[in-house]
Structure formats: C-alpha cells, structure tokens
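Data card: per-record layout.
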Amino acid sequence: MSAEMEDDDLGRFAAHGAAPLPAAGFEGWLEHDGARIWHACYGDGPPVILLHGGLGHAGNWGCQVPAVLAAGYRAVLIDSRGHGRSTRDGRPYSYERMASDVLAVMDALGLGRARFVGWSDGACIALVLASRAPARVESVFFFACNMDPGGVKAMAPSAVIDRCFARHRNDYAALSATPDGFEPFVAAVSEMMRTQPDYSAKELAAIDVPVAVVLGEHDEFIRPEHAAYLARTIPGATLTILPGVSHFAPLQRPARFNAAMQAFLGQTRG
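The structure for this 270-residue chain is written out next.
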C-alpha cells in the first residue's frame, strides 16, 4: 500500500502552509461589485472550480490542484472576496454576493458551466450557485458545510483549530491588501456565519444538479446528522464519510480526500 501524506495535527500546515501550487496558466483580478477578485487557471480540459473555506484562500488547495489536473480537468481557483488576494468593501458578507463573484469570474473566463469542489464556506457558495444558477453548475462536491444554522456543532477549542487559525492569520498578513485587518475580517465573516446560510428543506429539495455530500468522520464544526439530512433532502445526493479525518481533510490526508473527489468527478463526467 502506498504511503499517504499525513498532517493530522496540522503541524506542517501551521509551520509551512499548504503545498505550493503549480505554475498558473493565467492569473489576475476582476473588478466586480465593489471588490477585486483574484482568480487563476491551471491546465486544460473541462473546468473544475475549487472554492476554499472561510478565512482561508485558494492556496489551501495545493494538494488538490495536481489531482484535478491528473484527472484531465482544468483547475480554476478563486480567492473569495476579502480573502487571500481579493479585496472587499464595507458591506456585510453574504454567500449570495460571493456566489455572484464566482459567476462574474466564470463570465470573464468564458465558462458557461463548471464542476465545483467546495470546502466549508466554499461548499456553501457552490450549493448557492446550484440553487440560484443551475444552468452554470455541472455538479457539486460539497465538503464539510452546513446549509442552515442548526447544522453547526457547539464550538469546542482544540490545538488543531488553533494551528489552522494561526496559519490563516499569517497568510492574511502576507497576501491581503489590508494586512493589518485580520480581526475585523474575522468578525465580518463570523457575523455572516452566525445566521447564514439558512436554506429550507423546500429550497434544498429543488436543487437539480448532482451533489456529493462529504464530511470528515471527526469534523469539528458540522453535525453528522446535518450531512445526512442534506443527502436525504437534495434529490439524488450521495453521502460519504471520510474516515479518520476532520474538517481539514484536504490538508490532513490529501490522498484520501482526493480519491473521493476524483471518484465523484469521474461519475459526473459526460
């Protein structure tokens, strides 16, 4: 059996960040709705848009981009507004506004439709797109997120979360146009998360694109019962529990995460 890279306690991530991304074929910024949205493309083939989690940035996908390319797809990365190299204005955050940013990037790149891989907040953004703009969405790999406030566990501090948060702080200072603004950034994102997303069962049942609901066995934030509810409620959705990993599976055990991601992409390839 081949060895799998392990960073279960996120010690490597805290010290060094995610694996470096390959050279981009294109990268730039798009002016949209009061923000400059950074995005980049890697490789050729049908597009897969990878959307990172809250407080992170597109560079957190360093272990996944090579797997997407190896499966014959083009990887498209986006820094959500206010995250990484993207800017934001003073308005409150909303997942719908961040979804509109993604559509604007797709338009700028000439992408009519795409497959989506979303992690945490990025998964929510992808499912918002599946709900609001289904003609633009081929499928959604929905990892580790809630779609209503009841899906979130009570916060339990841990060393793993602390290490991830410290890396987010360092990366924000290195990448952001407002490097001293981490605390207000965290406050703004946290305020959004307090009440959003808040999708009803009726709204979820109206989603008409292939969806894989995926959760780490030891996710620190999302209730497993909620993941099961999403898989039951979204028509045709599947549920996968990744063993031995948490909310940070793409960093902890990337081969395990990538195998599930590639399997779903293969199932939905036309």
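Known properties of this structure: The domain at 11-267 is CATH 3.40.50.1820 (Rossmann fold). The first helix runs from residue 11 to 16.

See the next section for split statistics.
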